[in-house]
Amino acid sequence: MADTRAAGAANVPAVIERLEDSGRKLRARPLGEIIAALGRVGARFLDDQDPLRQRALSGIPEEARVSRPMAEAILGGMAVDWTEERLRALVTAEFEDPGALDGIVTVPVPRGLLTSFGPSDGDRPDGGTAPSAVRRVRAFGPRLCVQIVSGSVPGVAVHALIRSLLVKSPTLLKPGRGDTLLAQLFAEALAQEDAELSDALEVVYWPGGSQEAEGLVLQAADVAVIYGSDETVKALRTRVPATTRVVAYHHRVGVGAVGRAALDGSGAELMEVALDLARAVALFEQQGCVCPQVVFVEEGGETSPSDFARAVAGALGELEGELPSPRRTTGEAGGLAQLRGTAEIHQASGRAEVHHGGGDAPWTVVFETDSVRLPDGGPRTLRVRPVSDLAELPHILTSLGPHLQSVGHAGLGDRVEQLADALGQAGASRVVPFRALSFPPPWWLHDGRGPLTELVRWMEVEEE
Predict the structure, then answer these.
(1) How far apart are CA 369 and CA 386, in angstroms?
(2) What is the pLDDT of residues 128-162, one digit of tens each?
(3) Which residues neighbour 380 within 8 Å (Cβ) at sequence distance 6 or greater?
(4) pTM value?
(5) CA distance 400 to 252
(6) Which of 64, 256, 335, 392 could disulfide-link to 408, CB 3.0 to 4.6 Å?
(7) Residue 88 in 3-state DSSP?
(8) Is the dihedral of CA 257, 261, 264, 270 positive or negative?
(9) pLDDT for the residue numbered 361
């Protein structure tokens, strides 16, 4: 198995050849065996006594630039989805009959499709036979799945490699610069647990933009899965052969919605909502697509949107004791100072209010009484905007369109489904309470699509 920090284009051809050779054995393995092996490795990351978990927690803070408590929170939230129980739930949620990954299975045809052709045992006017009430199908994973992951959210690369191994696809994974450790540790542990399955996985790191390495793997891929900015996805997509399927997870953002019902409760209830939101802002240091960047707060409640902004600021301050902020780079500190300075200028003109914890606690909440232009302040920066009615939110978010991902909420009551429907039309793929925002289950519709069924190719069989 290649050293993720040293490998590059030189050994990629040999890696590709070995992975392709592993495909025959991988496709012959029962899905249940694969799930069990992956689950046993995943469970080790949750065991406080396991050296694998200890190595992960020792390395994540430096690599991902997060505090040790943050590393523990992230690893716990991510690794629970790598256990056997959760992986079985994933394949069950994705496939009507997961046995389709092992062989040809029989599945029912929706009744509506049958009635549109007439009786199932009769003949069609064109001389053909009316469709059967069942169909015979088989699902095949890619001959070679190349996963190119970018970013610094720990665990995303492990999610990626697990997905393609679950559909029995030999996998070449290039992790993001800030997420190599967990992928490497998972691969090493898999080699100890199941050498044959490990042969179908290679974790190879090269610096982003390496034309030679990227060109080799993209030409060899049956399916290329690309995570990254819009620019990264666009650049790589143009280099993929026309016959290669591309699954792209481009730049996405999260937002929040707080209904007036959440502002009418007791002080303790209000603080609970503020803490749930603050935690969603802090986790991953706001580097993930599930992290809210702006929250819209409905007017008309007992607590005003500006007072709610103060409550969230207080919650972020409290959270520093549990999940301390990492030390910022000189560039990040400069960006934060620019954000606060700009926000304070708007505050002087009555267009904004700014709350922050000072240089030692670099969280910042900006309440905007009017739409203002602010520079990027980096991690743990939240903008709070008032809205007269959350029914306006889908229209407000239209400009985000294909970049809208998750919407966290509180205080919507029985309006959840109606608002969620409108938000879905605006582009959102996930509408959940703030407390569930940071760690979606493994079967979540990633960017609105099934993460496993997006990878497979289907075959249908009809008998004489």
Answers:
(1) 7
(2) 555 668 899 999 999 999 999 988 899 999 999 99
(3) 281, 282, 285, 286, 316, 325, 362, 363, 364
(4) 0.90
(5) 9
(6) 256
(7) helix
(8) negative
(9) 78
The predicted structure's pLDDT at residue 181: 97
Tokens of 139: 């699902």
Retrieve residue 104's tokens. 């040809």
How far is residue 317's CA from residue 339's CA, in Å, rounded to a whole number? 18
Q: Give all domains of the chain, ordered by start, each with its CATH number.
A: 16-99+141-251 (3.40.605.10), 104-137 (no CATH), 253-436 (3.40.309.10)
Total Cβ atoms within 10 A of residue 269: 14
Residue 96 burial (10 A CB sphere; 0-12, 13-18, 19+): exposed
319 close to 64: Cβ distance less than 8 angstroms = no
Q: Which two tokens stand for residue 358?
A: 């000072």
The answer to whether residue 6 scores a pLDDT higher than 50 is no
- Which residues does 165 contact at the CB level (< 8 Å), separation at least 6? 26, 34, 38, 171, 197, 200, 201
Q: Are 241 and 219 in contact (CB under 8 A)?
A: yes
